[in-house]
Fold this protein.
Amino acid sequence: DARVTQTPRHKVTEMGQEVTMRCQPILGHNTVFWYRQTMMQGLELLAYFRNRAPLDDSGMPKDRFSAEMPDATLATLKIQPSEPRDSAVYFCASGLGTINEQYFGPGTRLTVT
Amino acid sequence: AQSVTQPDIHITVSEGASLELRCNYSYGATPYLFWYVQSPGQGLQLLLKYFSGDTLVQGIKGFEAEFKRSQSSFNLRKPSVHWSDAAEYFCAVNRGGGADGLTFGKGTHLIIQP
């Protein structure tokens, strides 16, 4: 069945390194979301796209985070430089249309040492 | 701004017993409400959603939820839990104003005891 895929599933990196996380939305879905999950803050929306155009990235630290959709089958979230406080699970979700259910990927667990 | 409160951080229920997980929301208009479940190390799976209409909605895995506007609540229920229901449960509301992202509660950790 159709699923959102995310790579890598786990990433351990040192502070200051660049991290790129990738997401393949469900084929045909035109909306892609990035969320971050931490113990302290829970699930937070970082950014989302519709038809590859960014609609809201207000939840993202602008100085180090960037999100893009190079094409309809790929969304990327980049952190440069990474910091220990970025350690979290990053989820991608996709959906179709507006205000509809979102289908989540398995997440990328990021550890920054 | 909208918010979601799940007042119970942990709930322990005996297998076969009924379950109710509480969710209260703060929202200025008609909300779009969701319940998701997360098993350890997994992503979130949608259990059910409420957009409009019948206030009692049925979901997957035998779950249901009731929207009560007067109480700003959207509680999740299941008449008889199974050990496989042990997981983290999240209530969510859309962010509103035409935005599609979700605002999540902090989650309720469900423990099933034999």
About this structure: The radius of gyration of chain A is 13 Å. Residues 3 and 85 of chain A are 29 Å apart (CA to CA). The longest strand of chain A covers residues 42-50.
